[in-house]
Write a structure and sequence with these properties.
- The protein is mainly α.
- The protein has a domain of 193 residues.
- It contains 14 helices and no strands.
- It is globular, with a radius of gyration of 20 Å.
- The chain starts with 11 loop residues before the first helix and ends in a 35-residue tail after the last helix.
Length: 322
Amino acid sequence: MLDLLPDPMHEPTLIAIPFFLALLIAEWLAAWKLEDHDEDGPDSGRSRPPRGAYEKRDARASITMGLVSIATSTAWKVLGLLVYTAIFVYLAPWQLPITAWYTWVIGFVAVDVLYYWNHRISHRVRLVWATHQAHHSSEYFNFATALRQKWNISAALVMWLPLPFLGVPPAVVFAAYGVNLVYQFWIHTERIDRLWAPIEFVLNTPSHHRVHHGSDPEYLDRNYAGVFILWDRMFGSFRAETHRPRYGLTSPVDTYNIWKLQTREYVAIARDVRSAKGLRARIGYIVGPPGWAPSPAPGAKRAGRMDPPREVSESAAAVNSR
């Protein structure tokens, strides 16, 4: 049974660290040399960083969150491996051979489509959004932003549960997820424009992912893909890039404290639940979409602004997201 477990030395994200560093340094040097002050796109009244820019405090927060996520993700994966292995060994009606090429193809595609749905849920269920929103909190879009990872991957582990039940070895599941994350690193950049049309049609690219990180109303809740943008095209969440996005959350986060960045939405949920009137409102604040609020009583006027669909309430202080 031990051959079902992945070798920690073969963890794709760890192997790719030199690749991450090389690209990050190259992009930072490009930002330093080029100093491109592009200001295209609609203006909401607040200034934007230059295209492809870096800011020391922002980049330091992103990189630190990435380093911490290595430790937290490892802990979650150990728990996941125990559960997945038990399911695979004792409950799966069949077991795909780990040495067969088709097992890896099935595993990779299955992990990617489940990543799409997990990512979509992360934007539409507030409690899950709380685990993910830190990744969208930067107003910069560069390779450092790619490292601004969440510390709680429990939702992804739950989403992958069907795979060991269907006979996909746990080692394949985690290796495919690692490759998926490695792929997504290079799409966090403004230095790469649109690619060859067939590539843009099939794969997730920097152009598609810039849309996903945009806080512009027309870009919110779009392009959830990990590797294959085909899922967004199939399930109606695709949006092409038409102008340079304004990055970050719809309500800016004025902190570089990584603990606050990771926990702020949990705090907001607790505050809303504590002040809610009735069970329905409490449940809504937890599992409703970011920005959800109880409907006002007939004839009553709700305090504050009325957010349009897909926008986030001030109390949620949320979002767009990955």
